[in-house]
Inverse folding.
């Protein structure tokens, strides 16, 4: 425990004490919207939708809703395609970067503009998270150690339109402050390796040379990296090579299905900090060790709206209704799932991110990420969200005392035209597939009344297939789904499920 760690920790504690509580959240959100509208009123988008008249109206929020429709990516893309060529389209200026999504939905990556203002907003959320680090009572040696960020390649590609593009983690690396690059691992050279397997190999080779205290990244790929290091150096736990490692910053997917595996490779009780950081923004972060619930960033360049994730907002296929019910932050209800709608300083306007969230607390506003809009199993009215699917898998894992991190499920038809749910669970331990299917079916019926009703009607069967981790990794590699920021779909189309089963068989 050295002087540097003490100084850094003390600085964070002083920063926290000097940070006073914010104003009323409703007023803050109104201020965010007004600032966004003022900044973008002279853009092509702002002129088309009358931002000037919205700002001059007696009820800015109501007029904004009336003038500007809900935008999916398909609708917003019209403007963002022009933003690649010309300045002042949906936000002032012309972005130097466009973030490519990790491709969990759709056939190709989406391009999301990353403006200077947007990059600054993400840094501000990061600073807000840092202000709360003293809550976690982190040991001084963590502050003296390096931070390993396992993201996508930082080797950004030059687009023919002049901007650089890559996944958001690679763009963020290029925007890191110089002091942060000094404490960051694996470093620019390794992080620029585009091939995931080659980058992983280099990380494993260099691991003994680093003093790692904290790691950030998507759980599935971080776990794969840690296990590869332990296998190479024949370790009992990861602290044998990184004795100061105690902090894991998760993000991108729900952490709970990975908790058991992280506990098994660590001889310390890990401090878990969850984050909601997407290509479209850094929206929330956990700020207390007692819970993974995340505080919503309400004064950082984002204006939020919420669509109820039920018959008021979506249809049976999980698509947004033509005229959905919309609520503002001060109107949300605790434990109600919502589809997140954002307006941001990247030039996104009433934009459907595609994620579903649930408020666990209203003062302050805290959320959990419950899934993706497209990861919603409802072919026969079962209405199973990703949150319910995860809970079912967690209970299955605990009951059979096995480890299941990854799974996929689809609604298929048998030869008689009857629907059944086909599950594939990734697990190396011995598993009785028929008993597991029965247990999972019963668990989901207890978790969801709509599912229970459909099991007596249109949903005739539940089937489960065990897939070994090696086969699963081989499939991801063939489909080029390997990488630090890649999120794998859990609810998939019928043809994709058949393709996966054929590959495994």
């Amino acid at each position: 425990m050295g002087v540097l760690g003490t100084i850094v920790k003390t600085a964070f504690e002083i920063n926290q004490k000097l940070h006073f509580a914010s104003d009323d959240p409703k007023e803050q959100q109104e201020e965010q919207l007004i600032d966004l509208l003022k900044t973008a009123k002279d853009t092509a988008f702002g002129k088309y939708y009358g931002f000037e008249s919205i700002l001059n109206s007696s009820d800015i929020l109501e007029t904004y809703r009336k003038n500007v429709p809900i935008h999916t990516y398909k609708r917003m893309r019209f403007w963002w395609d022009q933003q690649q060529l010309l300045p002042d389209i949906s936000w002032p200026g012309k972005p130097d970067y466009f973030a490519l999504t990790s491709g969990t939905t759709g056939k190709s990556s989406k391009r999301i503009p990353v403006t200077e203002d947007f990059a600054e907003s993400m840094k501000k959320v990061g600073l807000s998270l840092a202000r709360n680090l003293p809550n976690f009572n982190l040991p001084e040696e963590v502050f003296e150690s390096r931070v390993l960020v396992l993201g996508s390649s930082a080797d950004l590609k030059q687009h023919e339109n002049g901007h650089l593009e890559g996944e958001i983690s690679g763009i963020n690396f290029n925007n890191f402050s110089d002091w942060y690059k000094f404490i960051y691992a694996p470093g620019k050279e390794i992080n620029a390796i585009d091939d995931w397997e080659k980058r992983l190999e280099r990380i494993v080779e260099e691991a003994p040379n680093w003093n790692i205290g904290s790691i950030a990244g998507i759980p599935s790929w971080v776990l794969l990296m840690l296990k590869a290091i332990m296998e190479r150096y024949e370790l009992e736990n990861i602290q044998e090579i990184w004795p100061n490692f105690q902090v894991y910053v998760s993000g991108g997917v729900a952490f709970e299905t990975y908790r058991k595996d992280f506990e098994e490779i660590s001889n310390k009780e890990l401090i878990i900090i969850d984050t909601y950081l997407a290509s479209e923004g850094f929206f929330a972060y956990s700020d207390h060790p007692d819970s993974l619930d995340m505080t919503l960033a309400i004064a950082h360049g984002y204006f939020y709206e919420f669509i109820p994730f039920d018959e008021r907002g979506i249809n049976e296929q999980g698509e947004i209704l033509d005229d959905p019910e919309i609520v503002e932050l001060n109107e949300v209800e605790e434990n109600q799932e919502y589809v997140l709608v954002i307006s941001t300083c990247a030039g996104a306007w009433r934009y459907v991110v595609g994620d579903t969230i649930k408020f666990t607390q209203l003062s302050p506003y805290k959320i959990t990420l419950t899934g993706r809009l497209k990861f919603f199993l409802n072919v026969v009215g079962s209405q199973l969200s990703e949150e319910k699917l995860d809970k079912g898998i967690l209970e299955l894992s605990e009951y059979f005392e096995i480890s299941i991190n990854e799974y996929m499920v689809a609604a298929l038809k048998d030869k008689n035209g009857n629907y059944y749910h086909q599950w594939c669970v990734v697990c190396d331990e011995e598993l009785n597939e028929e008993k597991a299917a029965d247990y999972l079916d019963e668990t989901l019926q207890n978790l969801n009344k709509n599912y229970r009703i459909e099991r007596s009607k249109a949903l005739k069967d539940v089937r489960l297939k065990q897939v070994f981790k090696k086969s699963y990794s081989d499939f991801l590699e063939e489909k080029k789904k390997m990488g630090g920021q890649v999120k794998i779909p859990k609810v998939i189309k019928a043809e994709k499920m058949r393709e996966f089963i054929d590959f495994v068989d």
Remarks:
- The two ends are 53 Å apart (CA to CA).
- The first strand starts at residue 97 and ends at 100.
- The chain is about 35% helix and 20% strand.
